[in-house]
Amino acid sequence: MSIKEIDLHSALKTYFGFSKFKGLQEDVIKSLVAGHNTFVIMPTGGGKSLCYQLPALIKDGTAIIVSPLIALMKNQVDAIRAVSQNDGVAHVLNSSLNKTEVKQVKDDITNGITKLLYVAPESLTKEEYVDFLRSVTISFMAVDEAHCISKWGSSFRKDYEQLKNLGTLFPDSIISAFTATADEETRVDINQKLTNGKGKIFLNKFNRPNLSLAVQEKKSWQKQLLEFLEGRDNQAGIVYCLSQKLTEQCAEFLQSEGFNAYPFHAGLDSQVKIDTQDKFMTEDNVVV
């Protein structure tokens, strides 16, 4: 598909309601639409997801988006469905689905309905899924949180290391990578593993003037947490803990102090996590 055949600004307005791109978005999208392997380093909040969502919506076939967390996939699928008339436009394919749901996903892809398919890296190690995806038209492949494929982040998700085989499994596919954090050595490593060093690199500035960082010496986490939350009654937020057990303890503690708090970790039932995520996205004063 030629870029000249597409009015990207019109498509941006139609699908997302924006009148202009920001930062490197337009250049990245042009690269993907033109069929180039593309590697994007852009800070969180810089609009990375739109860089692969818009090309996926306007190109033929289904874009395969590799994402590490079910919660992230659900957020993005919900966002795409919100700008479409058909929920089948975006799907997830991961361990949370039953056989009936997997069949629906495959049917929608085969029938040309699905433009974005979000998969966990583990899904691309399953012969059944790989064989199916090799049988359909793939517009391009996008690896989100691509630093996980490098030695810098592979300890977080071992299956990301297997994504270095994407070029072999899908030799005719465009491969793109997206991350918010990667030093020069890591960028070279990611680009080499995913595209044999042939990906065109787009590097944005990391400075986020709307973010602030502060460090405190840890003493009594309960007392410090309550002090931090004081005066933030109408705000939502996330508290990161070092273990599932501590996550449960922290949520119980905050609940006992009158906060609308919920635990969220890999050991919870999938529906519980979905319900908690929905609360966080739609309700005020939720602490996860």
What is the topology?
Blueprint: H1 8-16, H2 25-33, E1 38-41, H3 48-58, E2 62-66, H4 70-82, E3 90-93, H5 99-110, E4 116-119, H6 127-134, E5 138-143, H7 166-169, E6 175-179, H8 184-195, E7 200-203, H9 221-229, H10 244-256, H11 270-282
Helix pairs in contact: 2-3
Summary keywords:
288 residues, seven-stranded parallel β-sheet, globular
Structure in words:
The chain is an alpha/beta fold and 288 residues long. It is built from 11 helices and 7 strands. The chain has helices at residues 8-16, 25-33, 48-58, 70-82, 99-110, 127-134, 166-169, 184-195, 221-229, 244-256, 270-282, and strands at 38-41, 62-66, 90-93, 116-119, 138-143, 175-179, 200-203. The protein has a 7-stranded parallel beta sheet with strand order 3-4-2-5-6-1-7, sandwiched between helices. Helix 5 links the parallel strand 3 and strand 4. Helix 2 (25-33) packs parallel to helix 3. The radius of gyration is 20 Å and the shape is globular. It starts with 7 loop residues before the first helix and ends in a 6-residue tail after the last helix. The model is unreliable at 1-5 (pLDDT under 50).
